Every structure is written in C-alpha cells, then in structure tokens.
Amino acid sequence: MEDIAVTKTLTVGIFFAFLNATSLSGSVAMAQPAPVPTKRPVVATISPVAFAAAKPTIVLVHGAFADGTGWQHIIPILQHDGYTVIAVQNALTSLADDIETTRRVIEAQKGPVVAVGHSYGGAVITGAAAGNDNVKALVYIAAFAPEAGEAIGAHTKEFPSALGPALRPDAAGFITIDPAQFRELFAKDVPAEEASVMAAAQKPIIGSAFASSVTAAAWKTIPSWYLVAQQDRAINPDLERFYAKRMGATTAEIKSSHVPFVSHPKEVARLIEQAASAPTN
C-alpha cells in the first residue's frame, strides 16, 4: 500500500458462497446413434446484482467541522469497486442525537455493514454500532474511540494537540476552527484552494459534545481497523495509537494531516475495502 504501513496482517478476500445460488447454464446432448454422450462445458454465471449484494454497505460518518460531502473523494472509489455507500449527515448538536441518526442509517441497511468514522465520527460509530450484529467491521480514520462512560475528550490533556487555541465558540456554545489557521492545523497536505473551501464551509459542533460519552463501545465486540495520521495536528497521533492499541485494532499509519480521506483517498479507500473483505470470525 503506497504511503501506508499496515502493522497487522490483513487477510483480504471476497467470499463467493452465493455461487451455489447462481444459475448454471448447460445441457447434455446425446449424439445418435453413437453410444457415447458429449457434454457441453458448464459455465457458472454471476450477475452484477448478485456480485454487488455480496459486499457490505459502507456507512461513512463525518467528524466535527464537516458534513457528509467531505467524503467526496472516497465515495466514487468505493462505488467503482462495487460497494453501496451512504454518507450520514449528522447535525452535530449532541453526541446522543448523532448516534441515534447514525444508528437509524445502519439499521436501515439490508445485509452486512462496515461503519467508518473520522475524528468525532469515531465516537459516533462507537455508540451507534454497539449491539448490532449486522456491523461486520469498524474503521476509525484519525478518530476518537472512547470507552463506555468515557468522555470523548478524556485523554486530550494527556495527549494534547495544537487545535485547542484555534477553536472559536459562538454565543450558543457551538465551535469552529479559526479559518486563518484551518489549513495549517486541520488539512495541511490538502491543496490550498480546497482547504480554503473546507474552512469556509465548516459545520459548527456543540462544544459540550466532547464532554459526552457513549453507553456501550462497539469496538469491544466488532473487529476494528484504525488509521493513524502521523502528521495530525488536530488529534495527537499518540492518542490515535493509544486508541488503536486499546481496542486491539488492525492498525495502519499514513503520513497525513487530520484528513487523509481528502489528501490520500486511494489509500484510505483501500483500508476500508480490506476491512470490508476480511473474513467474519
């Protein structure tokens, strides 16, 4: 994987058990009067619909200061590779509301799901996927991965980042990042013009969300993957490594800012597909 170092062996493969359900075309023709039958080759056919149905749905959950359109570089890659993709649009008004919104999206899917969360979105999938047997994998992209009852921001003093002084609260308690510092702290490896659009379009999040906690942690029962952004200035990369180690995640690292799905979409999509195609224990 270019620019990305995988630190745990990944078993990659798509299972074709559904082949038994596909139609077989072919017949046996008896030549007359010769007594020996001649068989035509038997050809197994897989319809595009059946092939797509064999893959899990990918549910993408954005973080703070963003919305679902932030996944625009990832979505076409996954769709091209045959995955159904849904990007959740969370309100960022409370962790509980965002968990509930994401849970509804996950529960609405037929068949297996891979839940992917970036940054704050990692806390959201941690709560939203808990107890759901249809979620086969969790993928954390430079994300928070709290324990049950643990505030999202519980370890930010132990593992500080440069983002705190750049946060700007409004009168209602919603916070954004100072646009003048946005690229440097959040998206340094993103082209300047695109980072400028991201800064202008950032979606405020209620500040109290980072003091909130989940009631159950999905990563305790669902296989997890974690991508550490080595040049992250919004979440300390050592905090990301702490989360990955604690959950026993299959871990990869990439030389990236806080938004590798924007600056390195091919590599991030590849990791998501590895989680999606891994065997279910």
Describe this entry's structure for a reader.
The protein is an alpha/beta fold. Helix content is 28%, strand content 19%. The strands form four sheets. It has a seven-stranded mixed sheet with strand order 1-14-13-9-8-6-7, sandwiched between helices. A three-stranded antiparallel sheet has the order 10-11-12. A two-stranded antiparallel sheet has the order 2-5. Helix 3 (95-107) crosses helix 4 and helix 5 crosses helix 6.
What integer value in Å does the Rg equal? 22 Å
Percentage beta strand: 15-25%
Based on secondary structure, the structural category is alpha/beta
Largest sheet: 7 strands, mixed
Describe the strand arrangement of the main beta sheet, using strand numbers: 1-14-13-9-8-6-7
Number of helices: 9
Mean pLDDT: 86
Can you give the helix content as a percent range?
25-40%
N-to-C terminal Cα separation, in Å? 25 Å
- Counting DSSP E segments of at least 2 residues, the number of strands comes to 14
The gross shape turns out to be: globular
Poorly predicted regions are 5-52
In brief, what are we looking at here?
This protein has 281 residues and is α/β, with parallel strands linked by helices.
